[in-house]
From TrEMBL:
Biological source species: Paractinoplanes globisporus
Signal peptide per UniProt: none
Single GO MF descriptor: methyltransferase activity
Domain Methyltransferase type, first and last residues per copy: 52-138
Gene3D superfamilies for this protein: Vaccinia Virus protein VP39
Protein name: Class I SAM-dependent methyltransferase
Length: 250
């Protein structure tokens, strides 16, 4: 069995660019939402003519669509992911535009009949509504309020769960932007980490889980977590996910 120091060194050395989670196989598991976002998104892409994927990451999910619309555009704000997405989406004829999460979208009004987004950090509903054509659709899977609360509280102490990622708040904001919410569902999903390196890689990759995480800053909490995993066999947390589909009236 690897020592604490070996697991820390391994977790700190794994590359974390993009949204490929294949490294975690055998070291962590995450239950998937029952609705199957990638499949549903792919079905909508096949029916679209002009589509936009917001905050695409490295383009991993978007690249899985079986059929691309005639115009396919993605945005991403982190330069390493921009490069990965451009390479990955090139076979689909996809264009990747570098846009920060808090910036307005550099597209004309009504430019797209489909806008999608998987796990956006922020949603600017007014901008989504603006770039959607009348009759267009916004389709998104998002992280819900209280996601990974067990891990966050272990690392940082008890944290207040606000409304920022509440599905009902998303409904209110979409409605306020002039969209009609057609579907809204949520689920709590089990995540299990079987060694400390997996936790470290996850926190380095999903950087908003524990803001400003570094191995040095959280050394003592990581040691305590390692001891708990050795005692219990794993560390279990739960992610919160919700699916929202909204329509812009014609």
């Amino acid at each position: 069995m690897a020592t604490f120091e070996e697991l820390v060194a391994e977790g700190a050395a794994v590359p974390v660019d993009g949204w490929d989670f294949s490294w975690f196989v055998g070291r962590a598991t995450e239950q998937r939402p029952s609705w199957g976002y990638a499949r549903l998104m792919g079905e909508r892409m096949a029916q679209a003519r002009r589509a936009l994927d917001l905050q695409t990451g490295g383009g991993e999910v978007l690249a899985s669509i079986p059929r691309a619309p005639e115009q396919l555009v993605a945005t991403e704000g982190w330069p390493p992911n921009v490069a990965l997405a451009r390479e990955r989406l090139a076979p689909l004829g996809g264009e990747v535009v570098e846009v920060g999460e808090d910036e307005d979208l550099p597209f004309p009004d009504g430019a797209f009949d489909l806008v999608v987004s998987r796990h956006p950090v922020t949603v600017h509903w007014d901008e989504v509504a603006r770039v959607l054509a009348p009759g267009g659709t916004y389709f998104s899977q998002q992280v819900g309020a209280g996601s990974l609360r067990e891990l966050i509280d272990f690392m940082m102490g008890p944290q207040e769960v606000g409304r920022a990622r509440d599905p009902e708040l998303a409904r209110e904001q979409a409605t306020a932007a002039g969209l009609t919410v057609l579907d809204l569902r949520s689920e709590a999903l089990r995540i299990e980490f079987v060694d400390l390196a997996a936790v470290i890689v996850f926190l380095r990759k999903v950087i908003w889980t524990v803001p400003n995480f570094t191995v040095d800053a959280y050394h003592d909490r990581l040691r305590a977590l390692h001891e708990q995993i050795e005692r219990d066999g794993s560390f279990v947390a739960h992610s919160q996910r919700f699916l929202i589909e909204a329509h812009k009236p014609a």
